């Protein structure tokens, strides 16, 4: 379980409950849901020959669940089925050449002196 996935990807940085007891229950259910999604994805990836559980992408797994829930009644041709999306929910092997800090562009162009 990774907390970055819980906070950012699962959008649980701030809890919605006001009382401590309810916030704890909300956090427990969020962790349970995150674990179930990861287990669904892992279940689809294990039968593959070169499956590596560390390469599981929670963001892609969550996207697969959300997309399949959006298309419950009719699935368009361009949308893969649920099992295929979960099977493909892997972190890529691409080596980034630049840091993420290079994406930062300040609004002010002149530097303070």
Which regions are unreliable across 5 or more consecutive residues at pLDDT < 50? Answer: none
Q: What class, by secondary structure content?
A: mainly alpha
Assign an overall shape: extended
The largest sheet is: none
Give the helix proportion (percent range): 40-55%
Whole-number count of domains: 1
What is the rounded distance between the termini?
A: 45 Å
The helix-strand sequence is: HHHH
- Rg, Å, rounded: 19 Å
Q: List how many beta strands DSSP finds.
A: 0
Structure description:
The chain has 113 residues and is mainly alpha-helical. The chain has one domain. 46% of the residues lie in helices and 0% in strands. It has four helices and no strands. Helix 2 crosses helix 3. It is extended. The chain starts with a helix and ends in a 26-residue tail after the last helix.
Layout of secondary structure:
Blueprint: H1 3-9, H2 20-45, H3 58-70, H4 82-87
Helix pairs in contact: 2-3
In short:
The protein is mainly α.
Jot down its keywords.
mainly alpha
């Amino acid at each position: 379980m990774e907390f970055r996935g819980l906070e950012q990807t699962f959008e649980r940085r701030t809890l919605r409950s006001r009382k401590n007891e309810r916030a704890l229950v909300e956090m427990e259910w969020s962790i349970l849901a995150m674990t179930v999604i990861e287990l669904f994805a892992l279940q689809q990836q294990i039968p593959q020959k070169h499956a590596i559980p560390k390469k599981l992408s929670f963001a892609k797994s969550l996207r697969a669940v959300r997309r399949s829930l959006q298309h419950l009644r009719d699935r368009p041709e361009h949308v893969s089925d649920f099992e295929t999306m979960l099977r493909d929910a892997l972190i890529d092997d691409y080596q980034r050449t630049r840091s993420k800090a290079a994406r930062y562009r300040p609004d002010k162009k002149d530097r303070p002196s």
